[in-house]
Amino acid sequence: MTRPSFPEPDESNGFLADHIGLLRRSYRALTGPDLSDPALDDRGSARSLFAAPFALLSHDAGADHILTYGNRTALRLFDLD
């Protein structure tokens, strides 16, 4: 089975701001606080979270979860690109 390919967050794709917006809304709905500085828009938050010193991962809702996002720390820890 071939792993799906997802782009690495960078300036050319807005650091995947749409995906980070979804993560922020979900995190806030489930936990209360924002995942990042609430004063940042999704693009600023996406840039900040990609460079964060903690691992941030997300996955799809399939039976065999496939990772759909990993920030720089997560990519380094899991030796992924």
Low-confidence stretches: none
SSE string? HHEEH
How big a fraction of the residues is strand? Answer: 5-15%
Rounded to an integer, what's the Rg over CA atoms? 13 Å
Tell me the major beta sheet: 2 strands, antiparallel
Structural class: mainly alpha
| Share in helix | 25-40%
Give the count of structural domains. 1
Beta strands, count = 2
Number of DSSP helical runs:
3
Mean of residue pLDDT values = 88
What overall geometry do the principal axes of the alpha carbons give? globular
Lateral strand order in the biggest sheet: 1-2
Feature tags:
3 helices; mainly alpha; 81 residues; 9% strand; two-stranded antiparallel ribbon; 37% helix
Task: Give a concise summary.
The protein is mainly alpha-helical and 81 residues long. It has one domain. The chain is built from three helices and two strands, in the order ααββα.
Give a description of the structure.
It contains 3 helices and 2 strands; from the N terminus they run ααββα. It has 81 residues and is mainly α. A two-stranded antiparallel sheet has the order 1-2. α1 packs across α2. It starts with 16 loop residues before the first helix and ends with a helix. The model has no long low-confidence stretch (mean pLDDT 88).
